[in-house]
């Protein structure tokens, strides 16, 4: 499974893009998106998902 960003809640701050260890997050148009093929949910690298832990808006980076 992968994580996704709820676009209507995202403030486009970009914090998640820089914290993603697999490079799965990028700005497409006006929204940040997570490539499900690249997202590893940070397994093996961190105990918690980095996108969700740095996001200033709770429950914006969530399991897909």
UniProtKB/TrEMBL annotation:
Q: Select a single GO molecular function from the record's annotations and give it.
A: 4 iron, 4 sulfur cluster binding
Q: Does the keyword DNA-binding apply?
A: no
Q: Which SUPFAM superfamilies match?
A: 4Fe-4S ferredoxins
Give the 4Fe-4S ferredoxin-type domain ranges.
1-30
Native species of this protein?
Answer: Rhizobium tropici
Q: Which residues form a coiled coil?
A: none
Protein's recorded name: Ferredoxin-like protein in nif region
Cofactor annotation:
[4Fe-4S] cluster
Looking at the keywords, is Iron-sulfur present? yes
């Amino acid at each position: 499974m992968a994580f996704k960003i709820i676009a209507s809640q995202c403030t486009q701050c970009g914090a998640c893009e820089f914290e993603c260890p697999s490079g799965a997050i990028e700005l497409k148009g006006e929204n940040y998106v997570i490539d499900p093929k690249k997202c590893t949910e940070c397994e093996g690298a961190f105990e918690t998902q980095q996108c969700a832990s740095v996001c200033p808006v709770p429950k914006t980076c969530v399991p897909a």
